[in-house]
Amino acid sequence: MQPDFDKQSQRLEFRKKRDQFVDALSPQDRALAFSKVPSPLAQYLLPGKIVAGYIAIGSEVDPAALLAQAHKMGCDIALPHVTSKAAPMRFLRWTPGDNLVPGPFGLLQPSENAPPCTPDIVLTPLVAFDDRLMRLGQGAGHYDRALSVLEQAIAVGLAWSVQHAPILASDIWDMPLHAILTEKSWITI
Questions:
Q1: Is 28 annotated as contributing to ligand binding?
Q2: 10 labeled part of a ligand binding site
Q3: CA torsion 153→126→158→161, rounded to 10°?
Q4: What's the average pLDDT block by block, 10 residues per block, for the chain (189 residues)?
């Protein structure tokens, strides 16, 4: 059966798929997934580069191990800082292990006093992705707006393989990713 071709229906469908997939993983498989930086990503993680990640919520891919390894490789780490649905998302410096504060939408983020920065690599959460490397997010547009002004940044979506669709609904303001990393593969066009 063909799903409805609108973003809200697709969000519901892919959140359910993601939740069911992650719930079915053994604790060992979940711990091993995304536990090591793959070589296609490692080529970008040069000393002094700024890598932006996020703190996972629910069944989202957890980039904590990737961020910790990037930090050990000499990269600076940043996390998003959000104040509202309408306000632009900023990236603030963060070191693994530093305290985080609650933000809107259930986010954990650096304190607003952390230094701002411009990431070179952005690891993005997502609800689904398609063959064009279009990303379906939560719906607030924070990442699309941020990526639209980070023209030099490499944007890598982190997803479970079940979050793939051949094509997703998209709008003209949606920003494609440069690559997707799943528990099984590195995907580029």
A1: no
A2: no
A3: -140
A4: 71 96 95 96 98 96 97 98 89 95 92 96 97 90 92 96 95 94 96
